[in-house]
Write a structure and sequence with these properties.
The protein has helices at 16-24, 51-58, and strands at 8-14, 32-34, 39-47, 70-72, 78-82, 85-91. It is built from two helices and six strands; from the N terminus they run E-H-E-E-H-E-E-E. The longest helix has 9 residues, at 16-24. The chain is elongated and about 85 Å long. A hairpin with a 2-residue loop joins strand 5 and strand 6 (85-91). The chain has one domain (8-91).
């Protein structure tokens, strides 16, 4: 008889100041884009066979999973808790702003140069 290791889910809790906005956002199907800055990584993990089993396990605890919270499995796959159930999600990290390159004016030796360059 083979032993089966129960998957472990890391909980990322939606910050309270973002929760109301999440609730008011219309439901969309497909992969949800989640911003890491809107979440706090919980110190707790949940061992469960699926995201739904994790939700059921946490339902009666002091810190149940709430709409907007994200579960991350051991492979890094994300599932976000919505009113309709769990849906696939991914982290969206904005690319750092790149400063514009300075403009360079080259002198070509022509007559367009000012008096100081002649």
């Amino acid at each position: 008889m083979a032993l089966y290791a129960m998957p472990c889910f890391q909980i990322h809790r939606l910050r309270e100041d973002r929760r109301q906005q999440f609730r008011l956002t219309p439901h969309t199907s497909g992969i949800t884009a989640a911003k890491p800055k809107d979440y706090e990584k919980d110190t707790d993990t949940i061992e469960a066979s699926s995201a739904y089993a994790a939700w059921a396990s946490a339902r009666g605890s002091e810190k149940p999973l709430m709409v907007g919270d994200v579960l991350e499995d051991e492979s890094g796959a994300l599932r976000i808790c919505k009113y309709t159930g769990f849906e696939e999600a991914h982290w969206v990290v904005p690319e750092p702003a790149v400063p514009p390159a300075p403009s360079v004016v080259l002198y070509d030796g022509g007559e367009t140069a000012g008096p100081a360059l002649q």
